Amino acid sequence: MPGKYDVPYIQRTRDYYRAQGYEKDYVWAHHDEMPFTPLPKPLRECRLGLITTAMPDTVEGRAKRQVHASMSTPTPESMYTDELSWQKTVTHTRDLGSFLPLNHLRNTARAGVFESLSGRFYSVPTEYSKRNTTDKDAPRILELCREDHIDVAMLVPL
Amino acid sequence: MSLVSRHLEENGIPTVIIGSALDVVEHCGVARYLHTDFPLGNPCGAPGDILSQIGIVRRGLKLLEEAEGPETTWRTSLGWRGGDEWRDEYARVDDSNREELRLRGEKRRQQQVAAKASGETRAPMISEV
Questions:
Q1: Pick the residue with more confidence: B113 or A54?
Q2: Contacts of B94 in chain A (CB under 8 A)
Q3: Domain containing A90: what range?
Q4: Among all residues of chain B, which has the CA nearest to that of A105?
Q5: Which of A64, A141, A14, A52 shows the shortest CA–CA distance to B122?
Q6: Does some domain include residue B6?
Q7: Whole domain around residue B47: which residue ranges?
Q8: Is A31 part of a structural domain of the chain?
C-alpha cells in the first residue's frame, strides 16, 4: 500500500514526456525573488476576483485557448476541463464547487467576510509556453482585474 | 497559474492560490499558497463534499488576510477519501504502458506539426495522464 507523500509532479511530468519520446525536458518556471502585496484594506472591504484554468463550456471556450471573462452569476452548469492534466482516473470535475467555488464565495461575501465577488470570473489557459503566459495572458488578466475594480484575487488551478 | 499570480502581485493585487501541486507552485515561487493534498482536479474540496469546500474557501481567504510575507504556504488538513493509491498512479510509467506511451507521443508530435503549420501558437501540457 502506498503511503502519504507529496506527489513529485515535476519529476512525474518529466518522466511522462520522456516516455512519449520527447528528448528535451520541460523547464518549469523558477524565481528567486517573490513579489508580495499586502492587503490594501481590510478583507471585508475588498472585491474579490476568481481565476481558473478551466475554460468556459461554450463553443468559443472549447475552441480557443486564450483568456476568457465569464459572468459569475448565474454560476455556470459546467466548465470545459478536458485539456487539463487533472487525474481523470480517480476523480471528476462535474461539481464546480470542487474547483470553481463561485457559490461558496458568493455566500461568504454575503456573510461579510469580504465585500463582494466580481461580476466576472476569468479563465486562463495552462500553456506549454511560459512566454504566452507572461507576455499575453497574465497582462490580460491584470487588465480585466482593473476593469472590474478587483482588490484581491483567488487563483484556482486544476 | 503561478506566473499569473506573480504578475498580479507585482502590479499591486494580492493573491492566494488554492491548488494541489505543491512542488510546481513552490518551485515557481508565489506569495500565498493553500495546498489541498488531493488528486489534481479538486483543489477546493472533493466533489459533493460541500462542507469541506466551504472550509477550504474560508481558509484560503484567511491566508489572504494573515500572510505577512511571500512564500507563505498553508495546508488543509483534509485527506482524500479513496485512499492513497492515486499518488503512485499519477502519470505512471511502467512496462504495462511504455509502448502505448511511445505511440501516443508519436501521434502527438504529428498533431503538433500540423497545428504549427496551420498557424497555431499555443499548446497545452500533456493532459492524458
A1: A54
A2: none
A3: 41-156
A4: B57
A5: A64
A6: yes
A7: 2-87
A8: no
Interface test with A, best of B10, B11, B13 (most A CBs within 10 A): B13
Report how many domains make up chain B.
Answer: 1
Q: What is the ipTM metric for this complex?
A: 0.95
Q: Are the beta carbons of B10 and A35 separated by less than 8 Å?
A: yes
User: What pLDDT does residue A1 have?
Assistant: 47
* Mean pLDDT, rounded, for B82-104: 91
* β-bridge mates for residue B54, sequence order: none
Residues 6+ apart with CB under 8 A from A148: A47, A49, A118, A119, A120
Chain B partners of A150 at a C-beta cutoff of 8 Å?
13
Residue A128 confidence class, pLDDT cut points 50, 70, 90: confident
How does pLDDT run across A26-82, given as a tens digit for each residue? 888 889 899 999 999 999 999 999 999 999 999 999 998 899 999 999 999 999 999
Of A39, A97, A157, which is closest to B1 when you measure between CB atoms? A157
Q: At a CB cut-off of 8 Å and minimum separation 6, what does B124 contact?
A: A65, A83, A84, A125, A126, A127, A128
Residue of B nearest to A108 (CA): B58
Give A-chain residues touching B81 at CB under 8 angstroms.
none
Smallest CA–CA separation between B95 and chain A, in Å?
11
Evaluate whether residue A152 is within a structural domain: yes
How far is Cα A121 from Cα A123, in angstroms, rounded to an integer? 7
Q: What is the pLDDT of residue B114?
A: 86
